[in-house]
Amino acid sequence: MEESTEGYRGSALHVLRKYGVKAGQMVEVVTTDELETRGLIVPRYEYADDAHIVLKLKSGYNIGLQVNSVKSMRPIQDSKQEEKIDSTTARGHSEDSSLRKKNLLLVSTGGTIASRVDYRTGAVYPALSASDLYLTVPELDHLAVIHPEVVFSIYSENMTPSDWSVLSSRIIELARSKNSDGVVVMMGTDTLAYTSAALSFSLMGFEIPVVVVGAQRSSDRPSSDAALNLRSAALFALESKRPGVYVAMHLIENDQSIAIHAGTRVRKNHTSRRDAFQSIDAPLVATVENASEIKWNENYELPKEDNHRSDRFRLRTKFDKNVALVKFHPGFDPSVLSHLVENGIRGIIIEGTGLGHVSDLTVGVIADLVKSGIFVGMTSQCIWGHVDLNVYDTGRDLIQAGAVPLENMFAETAFAKLSWVLGNFEETSELMLTNFLGEFSLRIPLSTR
Amino acid sequence: MEESTEGYRGSALHVLRKYGVKAGQMVEVVTTDELETRGLIVPRYEYADDAHIVLKLKSGYNIGLQVNSVKSMRPIQDSKQEEKIDSTTARGHSEDSSLRKKNLLLVSTGGTIASRVDYRTGAVYPALSASDLYLTVPELDHLAVIHPEVVFSIYSENMTPSDWSVLSSRIIELARSKNSDGVVVMMGTDTLAYTSAALSFSLMGFEIPVVVVGAQRSSDRPSSDAALNLRSAALFALESKRPGVYVAMHLIENDQSIAIHAGTRVRKNHTSRRDAFQSIDAPLVATVENASEIKWNENYELPKEDNHRSDRFRLRTKFDKNVALVKFHPGFDPSVLSHLVENGIRGIIIEGTGLGHVSDLTVGVIADLVKSGIFVGMTSQCIWGHVDLNVYDTGRDLIQAGAVPLENMFAETAFAKLSWVLGNFEETSELMLTNFLGEFSLRIPLSTR
Fold first, then answer.
1. What is the pTM of this model?
2. Total number of domains in chain B
3. Annotated catalytic, B189?
4. CA A418 → CA A237, A374, B123, B170, distances in Å?
5. Residue B113 and residue B28 in one domain
6. Where does a domain end: B75, B94, B110?
7. Is residue A268 flagged as an active site residue?
8. What is the average pLDDT score of chain A?
């Protein structure tokens, strides 16, 4: 831990030196506001102000201390801390024990959960190095030997299908080299559900669980969900013994139950709530209670493993970037579709209305595109429910035009799957309608309801 | 009612003539399947097969009788029926009564609710004339004098912002000429919520309630929601005494409660369920119980009427067709935005991720478009929750680029509003952020949650 005063400068650095403490240490603090507390000094990002020192409390909640309010600060012994730092530098340590400690690969791609906060502006900055990352997750100590890796340090809205390829390959490579028992992928929540769907396909057949996790509120907020989501994700990755790609996020607003969603069936349905993520037309896989107990959901059915086991589909990590997702709306200009194809797009997922419809004008353009070899898949902007192109004329016209109705895959999952299918295989329509992982469910015909 | 055998031909027409009955008449039927029932002979669409006669039962549910199964059929007296037919040809009738019967303007634009079913193929065809329409709604008899008008006969996915202008003007003109007490607009559910939002703005200041209604299952299905939705919509239009634009659809799957949604806060969230429509981040206005009682929701707050009452915003029925709605996704190609603008688009609603984000690449293109005078409004594909461009760099960059965060208006409502604002006024950003009708709600700052 060379960067002992990591990120601290000016007055803040002065105070740390005065009390002989450094980033990464446990300290006991008393302030002029009569606050007395213990916590871990968290490193700061490069451009942070010098008026605050950031402390991570036992709860996982971070607070910013004004440097001029610090009355006293003294380093305290933290046995776990010592052990933890030791374990990152020498993995052998844990293997000496009679009970082998498990290995958790902790991959960060950026986002709120892997961020530090600027207490002056309230802005959030990503952790930039493995040691940065490591110091932000003391709550994982007791669970396993942590192997932190920063694969990207980006906001998830900047993540692309090409990044999904890199991320998939790095996860496989790192997990193997670290002899990992489970993987936790930290990322921004904005495109988390797109990514979890993508990884579900590219990591099909991978031997260990991969849990994608984010936070809706950064760890400086009283309502932060970062610590509990992360601890629960790690527990599921290490203890569930169920390979596959999952998402771990708050089940409801309380700080007890974390939902474990199937990676292909989850969607971000609220901009800010901690329980923003919901499984769509699908049961939860499990919940993790109090970050310590996995409660399996009896209604969840394991995907059939026939497809997993086929080597042809195992660990195919390429994603084609030439895919687009287009939402239809009243008065939609279908020349958008032709424009995309002129720019190299090979497959388009359309969010139609209702059962998967578009205007007559749009059907005509789709027919031309399909003739020229472009894949066009229909989903619905309703989000819930199956598309069905057999009920109305518009649907039948779409079938005639060669559009492929994608059951109840919602647009985001269909988009990620299409990128994967086009990246690795030839038979696009057939594979889009092959149910690899329960990414769609059996349709109950409308006429029986 | 000249077209007495409307739509019937071949064997079906033969049977009707044999028993001396015609479309629009109440009959009592016995079949070889030992079915005995009473119902109204419903007209058929032009190209229907000749092997079925369609009967509307008292419940509103339609059945198709195989003509060769008809053992006997006799016309029966239906006093209401006589009165009803009379009332359409001579409105004076009801005004002679001491208790004036109310006038309901029933506007059809097409869709499942205003459709007939081909019992051979199961396909659904729209009612094409006012008398067609009239005969499909005997269930409205007792409520009012019905003035049926077919404004369009299209699937709602073909409805455009230009059609919204026509529809708005026709509603105003017809309601006034018929001295209407309320208006029911029947349409396809695919773009119903876009239309209800559009009408909410264009009919601001209109004196009577306008209720938009659709059906998720056509009236030939045991599970049809058509009759109950329609009766409840009519009741609310006639009895609520609350001007404004509303949507009436099933509250849950049972056949008792119909939800009355505010026209700007409702979204179709399921492809096929009867309770597909949900109010987003907003309470219901009311429910209608058993098509007979309005139960007001105490949590619903009436929109402030200051804006309604300003003549400047009253009954401005133009919609600009040069608007687009674009969904961002990982790897989104922002040249789509430039392409739209080259095609004449003046304003774009973007469905960003999370709090309203897009990739850095896209921010750059947005900055250029805004500089050239294009309006760009940010919403979120999460659907629920407020956008907030003050939390992350991406958001601040978007603000800097000139994108306008549209609170918690979801994309469909924002799109309809933008079309209306651009169609009638100059100050686009200011009016997009003016809360005319409760189309967005007050934001609770993230930092306090």
1. 0.85
2. 3
3. yes
4. 27, 12, 31, 44
5. no
6. B75
7. yes
8. 87
